[in-house]
Design brief:
The chain is an alpha/beta fold and about 140 residues long. Helices cover about 15% and strands about 35% of the residues.
C-alpha cells in the first residue's frame, strides 16, 4: 500500500505545482486542465483551472494536486502538511528558503533529536511543509 499527497488549491495549482517542480528538481511535471475534458464533462466555472497536476522526482511517491472548483469543497491544505526528506542539511536549507518566498517560516531549520535539520514553512499557496534531513542527528 502507498500514499501520495494530493493538494487542493483555490485557483493557484499551476503556479504552485510548477514552483514545486523547480524547487525539488522534478523529472516530470504534467498539468491537465479542466478544458482538456470533453465539454459535456467540464464542471461550470472551471475555465483556466487545473484538473490534475503531477510532479515526480523519479524517486519515491509523486506529489499531485488540482484546483478545487467552487462548490466542490475548500481549497487549501487545512491542517495537513507535506513531509519531505532532504538528502543534506544544505539542500534542506535551500528548500525551506525557496518555499518561504512569499510564505511564512513557522519553524526555522534546526537540529532536533531525530534529525540534523528540521524546519516547517507555510508557502505562498497555503501548503504547510515539514522539511527534514533523512540521516539521524549526530549526538
Amino acid at each position: 500500500m502507498s500514499f501520495s499527497p494530493y493538494l487542493g488549491f483555490a485557483g493557484t495549482a499551476r503556479a504552485a505545482m510548477t514552483r514545486y517542480a523547480e524547487i525539488f528538481g522534478a523529472t516530470d511535471l504534467a498539468i491537465m486542465e479542466f478544458s482538456d475534458a470533453p465539454p459535456d464533462q467540464r464542471p461550470p466555472g472551471t475555465e483556466g483551472l487545473v484538473m490534475h497536476a503531477y510532479v515526480s522526482t523519479g524517486t519515491g511517491m509523486p506529489l499531485m494536486g488540482c484546483d478545487i472548483p467552487e462548490g466542490y469543497g475548500p481549497g487549501g491544505m487545512g491542517a495537513s502538511s507535506v513531509y519531505h526528506d532532504a538528502p543534506t542539511a544544505a539542500r534542506a536549507a535551500e528548500i525551506v528558503a525557496a518555499l518561504a518566498e512569499g510564505g511564512t517560516l513557522t519553524m526555522p531549520l534546526e537540529k532536533t533529536f531525530w534529525s540534523s535539520a528540521f524546519g516547517m514553512v507555510t508557502d505562498r499557496w497555503g501548503t504547510r511543509w515539514m522539511i527534514s534531513v533523512a540521516e539521524p542527528a549526530q549526538r
